[in-house]
Amino acid sequence: MAEEKLPNWLKNRAHLSPDRPAIEFEGHTYSFLELYTLSEKMAGRLSSIGLGAGDSCAVLLRNHIDGVVVIHALFHLGVKIVMLNNKLTAKELSWQIKDSKTAYLVSEGSFSGKLADIGEILPDLKLHLMEELPEEGTAGVLQEFYLEDTATIMYTSGTTGNPKGVIQTFGNHWWSAVGSVLNLGLHEEDSWYCAVPIFHISGLSILMKNVIYGMKVVLAERFDEREANRSIQENGVTIISVVTAMLNRMVQDMKGTSYPKTFRCFLLGGGPAPVHLLEVCKEKGIPVYQTYGMTETSSQIVTLAPEYSMAKIGSAGKPLFPSQLRIEKDGTMCEPGAVGEIVVSGPNVTKGYFNRMDATQQAITDGWLYTGDLGYLDEEGFLYVLDRRSDLIISGGENVYPAEIENVLSTHPDVFEAGVTGTEDEKWGQVPLAFVVLHQGAELGESELLEYCKEYLASYKLPRNVIFCKELPRNGASKLLRRELKKEMGEWR
Amino acid sequence: MAEEKLPNWLKNRAHLSPDRPAIEFEGHTYSFLELYTLSEKMAGRLSSIGLGAGDSCAVLLRNHIDGVVVIHALFHLGVKIVMLNNKLTAKELSWQIKDSKTAYLVSEGSFSGKLADIGEILPDLKLHLMEELPEEGTAGVLQEFYLEDTATIMYTSGTTGNPKGVIQTFGNHWWSAVGSVLNLGLHEEDSWYCAVPIFHISGLSILMKNVIYGMKVVLAERFDEREANRSIQENGVTIISVVTAMLNRMVQDMKGTSYPKTFRCFLLGGGPAPVHLLEVCKEKGIPVYQTYGMTETSSQIVTLAPEYSMAKIGSAGKPLFPSQLRIEKDGTMCEPGAVGEIVVSGPNVTKGYFNRMDATQQAITDGWLYTGDLGYLDEEGFLYVLDRRSDLIISGGENVYPAEIENVLSTHPDVFEAGVTGTEDEKWGQVPLAFVVLHQGAELGESELLEYCKEYLASYKLPRNVIFCKELPRNGASKLLRRELKKEMGEWR
């Protein structure tokens, strides 16, 4: 088969619909032609520091028009982008940069503190602030994107500890956008609100839809429920991507007001939604599409359409058109109602983890991704997700991986072993809770241990509490049973 | 690259949105689940006559729900479909069946006359009427379609005489549908009116969109302007595919009435539209999207959006998102405004002609299809098509190929040589006109020669007149100059 290729997305969009609004940011609207012109100029500046086709480059960016421009500029040059989570610590970021084997980091002055620390950890890294790039430079802009080529790498953990770089090809992003449009449809007046991070697949997938659909995106540097509501009520926003906490805050903020008829939907991801919130939305006539997806599926892969939102409350829905889904237990397909591992396939699914043959082979068989998540299908084929990853903690929409925190705790000289699980939290949904077994005779206090963690972990990953105990629950193969921790937590409360 | 595959379109659609309306035909609406159930049963009946994966089967069908069912049933079985034009003569059809190397023809009783003749010409053909298939039969339904696999073969001529079978893969159909949705958008309430033949790419592409989008299609056995207008005005149709003659008749029929706001557009194909008709539409507020496409591009590949319909009147627009376009003359790209051959590429473009290596290599280079059509781009990249194929005659929306008629004329024993061109006709747009040079001393009359043609040519291909002359205009390489015939025609008038 000839390798499938498509004309460079933003360049093509600027040719097909130059005058349409592309991005609205801080009150200014950039047309597709303007966005392309900025990105072409930025490509020239980036090429002058040595970046070119086949290179990879890490980026540490805010949700900002300049960040959007940098992303497209790197695509123009044929540079693979390692999307860094700007909430991580310098140590975490350095680990990912090193693992991704990229020689470049492009960022901005607002992260100067972290950047200085990264520079110390990785003295050979070519670290550039976008504000300080040479003003002039010309570069050839890729005419076409090959769908098989890597567009982005995003780090995600899992239960095995070290984060893994998920490879997302242009094809993965393309098919994700196409699968979504065949589900949500596309209206001329569509305008998508993006207050989720563009370094996450939730935000990046909106930027891909932006150029593929020729659809306006309203970009917010940070989420504010009043501003988001105002954008829907007064500024023509028709679709907004949210996690539960955002939806909750927006619904609270609405009070007596309502959304205009032109508003199409909340696209709700980042973990299961509490039923009572969905019921409130139904009552108020707020359309919510629940979704299920992950970095490895380049955004949503299963979505519940609003026509089913009450009859199938709590369900994540059915797969997008190009994708498939099954539930497996011990190597066989489960009957409806029976719980098993969620297994997915489709052209939006990653081909694997960067430089991790083993992890890739473990997760993907014949194009089917074993998500590690548990769930079941009802008689009509609707998916119910029981645990987003068996042990994953979702805190304020961020994935928090217990193993990562456990690894840090375990590095403290006084700690024998550690187990982490999530506990309910009104503000963040969940927060981590640590169970720690100290070495015999060691004396370590909770606050001292948490202080230690701060050096290695972003604040949202810090355990709310440390519970010291004599041993951790383990199964026959000595594998930590995190579910048992929850039971112990109940007793501890 | 792993071969891309997608879940069986109709089966998947019946799973994802079983209760949505799929096809409305003669007042009855079939849901996607009903359509799938019918097609699954039909697959069983077709398998009982020996059809199975890897076979090919010709079909001779009307625009009818049963025809739609047969098409999906053959897809379920993994059978390649040779789509026959039901307006052709038995001889023409037999030629195509033989050329396609298919052993099977599935048709219906309403074509019994033609079928009897075909049976005589091809005594070994396994010819079956769908009404007389065994009632029972079970068959495995394909779970997935590989995008590289051939879905359909459609015959088209060209200037070289014999028709060629255009290979259309599942991928070609898929990308055509996706390219269109990224241009037209997709609304929940969309309903597409199909009165163009389903054996043409114009109609078949609507059936593909039907299952890929999960969008309702209103199918008409034949075009009637009053019925089409009624469907838009009273029956919720939002999009209709037309050729100029259909649009003209519908606009005439509207008189003082208007279309509802929910009506989205006429998709106008099948050749350039007269400017005065477009102006009338603009005046009446009728949205018309002009398009350019062909069997080889699996439907439209260039489309003019209505926002440009007046500023760019007469233009076919810009390529669909996944496709590309350039104008070439003597191997180099033309500047804006300069006329050259229209060359297109994209994942909707055929990989070639069935069993015609030479024709394929002549038409396609590095994935770029040389259309044989002449045109130019303006400064902004909008395409203007000058001749739909340099010599093609479009009669009532049907392609009529001069070379094919010339071939028939030339087989008459009294004819030395023949040239055919089109002449304007109020009813059909164009009709063929023949210029014939007789052998020395031969005496043959116009009506006698036309009578002879009737045996070999569908009625819409019959020349309106035969003009006897002493010689035909030819260029230095003895190639017939059909453009010169038009000049002679002027003198003859």
UniProtKB/TrEMBL annotation, chains A, B:
Gene3D superfamilies: 3.30.300.30, N-terminal domain of ligase-like. The keyword Ligase applies. Residues 404-479 form the AMP-binding enzyme C-terminal domain. GO terms for biological process: menaquinone biosynthetic process. Keywords: ATP-binding, Ligase, Menaquinone biosynthesis, Nucleotide-binding. InterPro entries: AMP-bd_C, AMP-bd_C_sf, AMP-binding_CS, AMP-dep_synth/lig_dom, ANL_N_sf, ATP-dep_AMP-bd_enzyme, MenE. Residues 11-354 form the AMP-dependent synthetase/ligase domain. It catalyses: 2-succinylbenzoate + ATP + CoA = 2-succinylbenzoyl-CoA + AMP + diphosphate. GO terms for molecular function: ATP binding; o-succinylbenzoate-CoA ligase activity. Pathway: Quinol/quinone metabolism; menaquinone biosynthesis; Quinol/quinone metabolism; 1,4-dihydroxy-2-naphthoate biosynthesis; 1,4-dihydroxy-2-naphthoate from chorismate: step 5/7. Its EC number is 6.2.1.26. The keyword ATP-binding applies. It comes from the Bacteria. Converts 2-succinylbenzoate (OSB) to 2-succinylbenzoyl-CoA (OSB-CoA). Belongs to the ATP-dependent AMP-binding enzyme family. MenE subfamily. This is 2-succinylbenzoate--CoA ligase. The gene is menE.
